[in-house]
Write a structure and sequence with these properties.
Length: about 280
């Protein structure tokens, strides 16, 4: 018997196949453009496996009860409000949990930690956040808490996909970093960060100030940096930490660490949440 964790990304879907908690295999497929095609692809991917628990991590905010995407949706057009759990059920596929991908990534990290009040900052195409506090994910009143990519950091700045101007993800995401690096003529992220380029220094200082704000609000025991950024430029964690300590007030400790699971966190967390959900249900029988 297997447990399954699927991460639906903007470009790739990754299915993690677990046995006894161990990841034994990862199957990949391009993410189709249409939600119905996504369901067909999921059906094809999970068909070979006799599974106990099945969880899905997705971009965007979710309606946990309905196992549906919320109106904010994700990267797939027509994904807003899509009833993924119901569509899968019609195909005879039982889904235990649908959860936001950054929340899943943090749950994956927490499996190996003993501390509490842990902040996850996913620096990828955008910036996603998750916060683990009091032994559980902090979800907020409508379940869409920790949308830290949409904190305005520049008044009247670049227009964000969310409709606001000057959102943090327009400036401090891996995508924004990549644009600055290419414009300065660098191929490797760490080379760009080590350079004397004004745009590299401005990126570090700006991202450090942004993280200082988050630390001042949340007082986390650890800030885990995940997403494509730590693959592009592994030195970013040490550089941000130094800049935070240099620029922050006396309360700032900058407890930055790279996320341990890298890009596998979403799959691992989705599987763990699905197992927890099934255990909870069995206890109620
Ligand atoms: Zn925004």
């Amino acid at each position: 018997m297997y447990d399954l964790g699927l991460d639906i990304g903007g470009t790739t879907m990754k299915l993690g196949i677990f046995r006894g908690g161990e990841l034994i295999r990862v199957d990949r497929a391009p993410t189709p453009k249409d939600p119905n095609q996504v369901v067909n692809e999921i059906a094809r991917m999970v068909a070979p496996f006799d599974y106990e628990a099945f969880g899905i991590a997705t971009a965007g905010t979710v309606n946990r009860e309905k196992k549906a995407l919320s109106d904010l949706g994700g990267n797939i057009s027509g994904w807003q409000g899509y009833g993924l759990g119901e569509a899968l059920a019609k195909r005879g596929i039982r889904l235990d949990v649908l959860e936001n991908d950054i929340n899943c990534a943090l749950v994956g990290e927490m499996d190996n930690r003993r501390d509490d009040h842990v902040l996850y900052v996913g620096m990828g195409t955008g910036i996603g956040g998750a916060f683990y506090s009091g032994g559980e994910l902090y979800l907020g009143s409508r379940g869409s808490a920790m949308e830290i990519g949409h904190i305005v950091v520049e008044k009247g700045g670049v227009l964000c996909a969310c409709g606001q101007r000057g959102c943090a993800e327009g400036y401090f995401s891996a995508r924004a970093f990549h644009g600055l690096m290419k414009a300065a003529g660098y191929e490797r992220g760490d080379d760009f960060l080590a350079s004397n380029e004004a745009s590299a220094q401005a990126f570090i200082d700006g991202a450090a100030d942004y993280l200082i704000g988050l630390e001042n609000v949340l007082n986390p025991s650890a800030i885990l940096i995940g997403g494509g950024m730590i693959t592009y430029a592994p030195s970013i964690v040490a550089r941000l930490k130094a800049a935070m300590l240099r620029r922050g007030n006396g309360n700032v400790r900058a407890p930055l660490e790279p996320a341990r699971l890298g890009n596998d966190g979403g799959m691992v967390g989705a599987m763990l949440l699905a197992k927890k959900e099934r255990r909870g249900r069995e206890n109620h029988l």
